[in-house]
Amino acid sequence: SLIQPLAERLVQEEYGQLNVMGGCRVKEVSLEQSEIDGKMHASKLTYLDTKSGQMETIEDIDGIIMAVGNQGMSSIVTSSPDLAKFPVFSKAASLKGIDVISCRLWFDRKVSTRSPANVFSRFDALRGAGGTFFMLDQLQEDSPELWGD
Predict the structure, then answer these.
(1) Model pLDDT, residue 48
(2) pLDDT band at 26, cuts 50/70/90?
(3) How far is CA 77 from the centre of its chain?
(4) Is pLDDT at 2 greater than 80 in this prediction?
(5) 3-state SS of the chain?
(6) What stretches of the chain show up as alpha helix (H) in DSSP?
(7) Residue 132: strand pairing partners
């Protein structure tokens, strides 16, 4: 998976204190008010483990990072009354658009193309998806930033 190397690195950097949970569908995020500073914080996460088909709950959590698209965010906020009370989550849940993934690849050799910008679509293997790739080395001035230096 594209995410696996990033997930492994994050877990390693956090000395095992971080739990990356792919294959799970968030059902509800519950919040509670801190007795110390009065701020709201995540207290419980209920999710569907898509591998086992079981609903699971995690309590006593420090935080949640949700890597979801528009439809996922809308579903989570709709099923989480505590989140829906906050305008920032309600507004995020009402965004319309399409889910997008962006990936930057560095090749070990030059790849010749007819054009530095190309669209790919209408391949059965894409199952309705499509994409665009840009040969940044052909579109931008050669600089360290281009190569991630």
Answers:
(1) 95
(2) very high
(3) 16
(4) no
(5) CCCHHHHHHHHHHCCCCCCCCCCEEEEEEEEEECCCCCCEEEEEEEEEECCCCEEEEEECCCCCCCCCCHHHHHHHHHCCHHHHCCHHHHHHHCCCCCCCCCCCCCCCCCCCCCCCEEEECCCHHHCCCCEEEECHHHHCCCCHHHHCC
(6) 4-13, 70-78, 81-84, 87-93, 136-139
(7) 119
User: Tokens 């962006």 identify what position?
Assistant: 102
Structure tokens at 90: 């309600």
Say how far residue 108 (Cα) sits from the centre of its chain. Answer: 28
Specify whether the CB–CB gap between 28 and 46 falls below 8 A: yes
Tokens 């050669």 locate to: 142
Say whether pLDDT at 86 is over 70.
Answer: yes
Residue 130: its pLDDT value, please? 78
pTM, entire model: 0.62
Over residues 78-102, the mean pLDDT reads 87
